[in-house]
Amino acid sequence: MSSIKDIISHYSAQVDAQLEAMLPAATGPAEPLFAAMRYSVFNGGKRLRPALCFAAADAVAGSDANTAKVAAALEMIHAYSLIHDDLPAMDDDDLRRGKPTCHIQFDEATAILAGDGLQSLAFQQLCELSELDPTIVVELVSTLSRLGGCSGMVAGQAIDLAATGSVLELDALKVMHAHKTGALIEASVLMGALATGQASQEQLGALKDFARAIGLAFQIQDDILDVESSTEQLGKQQGSDATNLKSTYTSILGLERARSEAAKLFDQSMEILENFGEKADPLRAIAAFIVKRNH
Ligand code: GRG
Prior knowledge:
The protein is an all-alpha fold. The protein has helices at 4-22, 31-41, 48-60, 65-86, 102-105, 108-127, 134-148, 153-163, 170-195, 201-228, 231-234, 240-243, 249-253, 255-272, 281-292, and strands spanning 95-96, 99-100.
């Protein structure tokens, strides 16, 4: 396992098998709901959060079948957030991953329900981790509710909606992204480590700092791509931040300073991982991918 492509496909194969097993078959009276949940989970996401979850587990003690279940829960929360983010009441987007968004492919009510269904299935999955010590299960549920909910990602979305149309200062932009994008990235890294049952407080502290650095770098790169890439490359509308009057790292700092800020955060994230040795190589490779990706 060496190139980032190999690392991500190795982890994706495991999380995809788990998602396939967990998601209800698209049959029966709730068929449109199940079809919409499957559509949104299996329509070409990069599986970055699952990869971070696996790589954090590998950096601590090694990933296993429980890691795949935790990673699947994280990807379901991510998929739900994208479905709801694309709705007319939020960003009103027609295109996601190069395909019609969930509410365009199905309808708005089904898309709302698909997001709801994915969110609760994620927590059900965690509660059913019967091979883990119950205190670890509670820690996993608590971490995902805190960082995925109204202290994390959901608050970030609310801050973003409230700020649309107004110009944000850099510090306010950082707070918004630390919640909206960074919190679930932090959850992915922490939950991978927690699920091993072997992470020390020192390791968890370092992994949290690592996740915060790459979470911000991820968002800066996202803003750069929104300016530099094509709609085809992105699989979503290019330039949508400017169209939606959103403050971004590139609108505040300009392209060059945004690039150097992402590079600085990457360097910081590498320093933080110094004590982990070569077991953290997949985590290092994913961090490098985050700041160099072109989609
Ligand atoms: C609606 C509760 C709620 C939250 C939405 C994550 C989010 C909050 C909105 C997504 C909007 C957006 C485009 C944010 C920028 C960063 C981001 C999360 C991009 C999508 O993540 P990728 O690139 O997606 O990992 P793929 O498609 O690869 O899974």
